[in-house]
Amino acid sequence: MITARAAATFDPAGRSVATARAFVRDTLQGWGYTDVVDDAVVLTSELVTNAVVHAGTAADVLCLRTEDGVRIEVSDHYPEREIPLQSTGLDFGSPDRENGRGLLLCAALASRWGVEYSPTHKHVWFQLDLPERPVGIRSAGPLLPVGLLPVADERVRVAVVQIDSTGSIAAWNEDAAFLFGYAADQVTGKQLTDLTAWPQTPGTNTGIVDALQLSRWEGSYGMRGADGRTIPVYASHLRVRDTHGEPSTVCLLVRDYERAVLQSPVRTPVSDANAESHKTDPFEIFIGSPAPDDLDGLLQRTVERARDMLDADSAFLLLATDDETELEVRATTGLPSARQRFARVPVEAGTGRYGSARMPAVHEDLDNVPGAVPLLGGTGMRSVVTVPLKVEGRLTGSLGVAAETAGRYSNEEALRLQFAADRIALAVESARLGELERLRRGSLSFLVEASDLLAGTLDRDQTLALMAQMTVPTLATWCAVYTIADQSSEPYLSYVLHEDEELIDGLKALLSKIAPPDPVPTPGARVWAAPSEAAHEAALRTSMRTLGLDESGRLGSGIRTTLATAAAVGGETVVLPLVARNRVIGMLTLGKPSDDHFRQEILELAEDLSRRAALALDNARLYSERMAISQSLQRSLLPPGLPEVPNVEIEVIYRAAGEGNEVGGDFYDVFPIRDGAYGFAIGDVCGTGPEAAAVTGLARHALRLLAREGFGGPAVLERLNAAILDEGARSRFLTLLYGELWPQEDGSALLKVVCAGHPLPLRLRQDGSVESAAEPQPLLGVIEDLELYEQTVTLAPGDVLLCVTDGVTERREGTRMLGDDGLADVLATCTGLTAGAVAARILRAVERFAAEPASDDMAILAMRVPEPPTT
Fold first, then answer.
1. What is d(CA 710, CA 517) in angstroms, rounded to the nearest whole number?
2. CB neighbourhood size of 66 (10 A)
3. Measured between alpha carbons, how far is 865 from 645 in angstroms, rounded to an integer?
4. Rounded distance, CA 432 to CA 435, Å?
């Protein structure tokens, strides 16, 4: 049964793919279907791409919510394009090819999918079912002996925080102030997300914003205390509404190791005394029923049961990497979990290594073998027993319990713990593989959107900002990007970002004082200890130098900044090289807060992102270099300035079409030839690009050189024509208006002009009449033997000579064109205007002639002989 629907139509443009992804993500999150969001986004991206890019039509996206899941339909308007169905026997081909990939993903990710045709549309649909999990199930727990009750502090603190419908804190009790260090008036009205350090790893758990919208939710997250440290808490959320119907969420929070205070008790199976043949699953005996359906919950339940089973003070569980060379801390109880979570140790013998991972081991006193179990260093634990988790003979993890007294455990306890580990190993591995699959799907969705964003810009600074914003807070707490200009340059700190904006300046100052990481091209993430060490040293020096208390007894702002920065970068820091075109162009540095570590899956995702970001950054660099060269060349093709000509006003307006990266096209020049004589030119080279630029540069410099050698106008153009033809295949034909100007003592100006294939110059007299000031002659760069002649024009006081390129006369609006007549009509209205005003009015008329931007370069050269002042 359909319970909700949402629909949208997207234009046949590449940008519609990202918009469609956002539409589906927002819709499903609004429905509370976060478990299937990542799969839905990936499939929608592929199917909408097929519609708007490959089929070239609009795409209709329809989301239908059912009680069991969601169905999404993507329709295009090109039904005659056949889609290969599995039932037809057609081969899907290689998964790496571009076409057909959307259907392969449907087959891999969707519960059901199919293709339907109608007379006007083609529909590709897929169904994603929600995982079966009980929501909000509560039950009473059994009576337990006092010795089996969970251990808590003498005074259990339960923070009660009420969040209003906007996500802001409305109530904050005394225990909340004690646990997190903020008084109620400091946090009331702030967003809860401002105080949380949520992991936000793709595909894992529920985001804090989503959790606040659910009717009932339990889980772990981190709260950032007033001292900048992250406090792991276990939370229970209940959504309520007041008498006016306004919704809010009541949050109960305790320290993570006291989660038993809030965690819903598990239901125990009802035993049937009369059914003697009934056998209880050993797994359920140990872990309880129902078992947690998420990996973190299962692991946490495991260590708590293992601790209680052997009456231990602490317990821990580590999971092995795929190659069984390292173990990663995933769950602890009775230990500082925030400090150890995701830390990794090698599976080898020796100090600081986990030598007892593959076989059960009992250590009667760790003081006699320091470093035998690296996880327990400095925790006060003395005796420990560890057992491996194995599936089909392969090491998948290690489970251990520890006590504060020596000699607590023997081989008997090791056998009991091994029996329990054997019961849960398969369930843990299955949950781990499920988490990895969700991570990979979430990573795919993340990388799709990241690639879209990086491909959408060629600006270097914007690319750097995108790199940092995509990693923080999704992958890391803070990020720094170093760039390397060339092989001889040192790495330069180009961009710094922290999830807490108030810490960015302190972080940037800290990183600026330490040497950058070495630009090693080896792929993968490597640990960089310098930031953490520098931060801790700075905090220590500050504490030793002064208590830092002001008159009110509070820490000074400088001390607070130093300590906050130390906490912000005190965790694990890794460096990933940015390698593009076989050259290290920079480093991407990711960091965690105090004593925190990266997950291996996150590092792998960061490595994928760094490869894409490196190529985007290098493309932006190449584009910037090309733009700089292009603009420098364009500037060299235009004169540096206009000379002062006695008794003649001269104004030039030049407008280049395109995005500023095309050289060549139109050009102009005004230059002194000798005393009392000036040359002027305006021309248009056929085409654009380097070849046109070469002809433009040749023409402008040749005109100056030949004119100053004493050649007249026809001789100058004939020699320029020969030089253009000498360029051979690189030559381009050129239209050119060239003239020489002599200001006269009577206030007039004498001009001799040659118009070689160029739009004719127009002369505006004082009476408002407009006429051509030259006759057309052959253009340059086409035939060898040119016979050109010059024409003499005298500009009386008040007269204007207007010279333009064809970008002005050929300005179009549909089938209309401005043309020579239209230009003459505009010029006729310019009587009495200065040369600058004439040029500006012509440009304004050209721009207003059509709504679309000009597609051709334009040059306007106006010369006017001013009228003598009246007495």
1. 64
2. 14
3. 10
4. 5
Q: Are strands 326-333 and 583-591 parallel, antiparallel or unpaired?
A: unpaired
Angle, helices 530-545 vs 557-568, to 10°: value is: 150
Q: DSSP character for 780? A: B
Q: Are strands 858-864 and 492-498 parallel, antiparallel or unpaired?
A: unpaired
**Neighbouring residues of 532: CB distance < 8 A, sequence distance ≥ 6:** 569, 570, 571, 572, 573
Q: H or E segment at 338?
A: helix 337-340
* Residues 6+ positions from 210 with CB-CB distance below 8 Å: 29, 32, 34
Q: Which position has the token pair 């946090």?
A: 187
Q: What does the radius of gyration of the chain's CA atoms come to, in whole angstroms?
A: 38
Q: How far is Cα of residue 163 from the mean position of the Cα atoms in its chain?
A: 30
Q: How far is CA 68 from the centre of its chain?
A: 34
Partners of 318 in beta bridges: 329, 398
Sign for the CA dihedral angle at 552, 557, 559, 560 comes to positive
Name the H helices within 481-596.
Answer: 504-513, 530-545, 557-568
- pTM of the prediction? 0.55
The encoded tokens of residue 323 equal: 């190659």
Q: What is the C-alpha to C-alpha distance for residues 97 and 99, in angstroms, rounded to an integer?
A: 6
Residue where the block lists tokens 């040059």: 859
Cβ within 8 Å of residue 539, ≥6 positions away: 562, 563, 565, 566
Length of the chain: 871
Instruction: Tell me the two tokens of residue 438.
Output: 């969700």
Write b or e for each residue in 355-379: b if 16 or more Cβ atoms lie within 10 A of its Cβ, otherwise e: bbbeebbbbbebeeeeebbbbbeeb
**pLDDT tens digits, residue range 173-229?**
999 999 999 999 999 999 988 888 765 433 334 567 777 877 777 777 888 888 888
Burial of 303 (0-12, 13-18, 19+ CB in 10 A): buried
Half-sphere exposure of 217 (CA within 13 A, CB side): 22
Decide: 564 and 226 in contact? Cβ < 8 Å: no
- Are 163 and 212 contacting, i.e. CB atoms less than 8 angstroms apart? yes
Pairing of strands 69-76, 122-129: antiparallel
| pLDDT at residue 794 is higher than 90 | yes
What distance lies between CA 622 and its chain's CA centroid?
A: 20
